[in-house]
Design goal:
With 279 residues, the protein is mainly beta. It has three helices and 13 strands, in the order βββββαββββββαββα. Strands 1, 2, 4, 5, 7, 8 and 13 form a seven-stranded antiparallel β-sheet that branches. The chain has a three-stranded antiparallel β-sheet with strand order 3-9-6, with no helix packed on it. A three-stranded antiparallel β-sheet has the order 11-10-12, with no helix packed on it. It comes from Candidatus Blautia merdavium.
Amino acid sequence: MKNKKVLAVLGLAVVVAAGGTLAYFNQTHVAENQFDTGNYDTKLVETFNPKDGDDWKPGAEVNKDVEVENTGDVPVVVRAKLDETWSRDGEAVKTITSENDKSAIVVPWQADATDGLVEEDNTVVEKAIGTQWVQGTDGWFYYIDMVAPGTTTEKFLDSVTLKSDVDMGKRDRTYTVTCSKIANPFDLETAGYAYLIQEDGSVDLEGLSDALGLVKGDELKVDYEDKVVEGLEGYSDADYTLTITAEVVQATDEAVDEAFGTEVPYLDLNWELEQEALN
């Protein structure tokens, strides 16, 4: 089993009023998760390279628990967002974010699962978001309850699953023919025998034997090689990074307006915010 790697970054911002009085606190937690596939038996993977569809198992569920604990002594409210990036050889292939793409970050959809193109796709990674988190019009996910001191939110994220039909790139198949009557192996299509390729990609060996004029005792072999077409790689041989950012703020109107903005989409939130920050 591969070594599992988790990269987490935590930040703490403290806002102090004039004269040194503590107005409220604001925390931002960022967890950047890299998924690594290379072994089908891996249950918790954290940096994955689905190399031509062989190293990663489409449809496999990966457990990933993300929750926020209130270790302070005042009630807080929480929101979180997701950012995901697919990259290949250090270059970004596709990026989707909660704020810019909203439902596309959580509703898997592919424009075409076989064309090797990813630009028009939604996410291809299914995410099990907790039922106590609701997505606002700003793309952020808000925890519906205030979090009391010493308590923890319901899991924001419980697991991630790569779609079973994820686009692993458009393939180009070549056929190399070896024949005892011909000195060197040759390419089937270049030699003019493409018509003998059947719908399932196999070759009509009997027809090829007749076309080559082979008789009993002659040897015939066809080697198949599939390669991903350059520029149409889909999600094959790529790295996927999922970044989770959780913002935690004291449960007051003043703090929420300052940290989250005045246009917070409250939805069905069970927030009973204090009017002013505690001094």
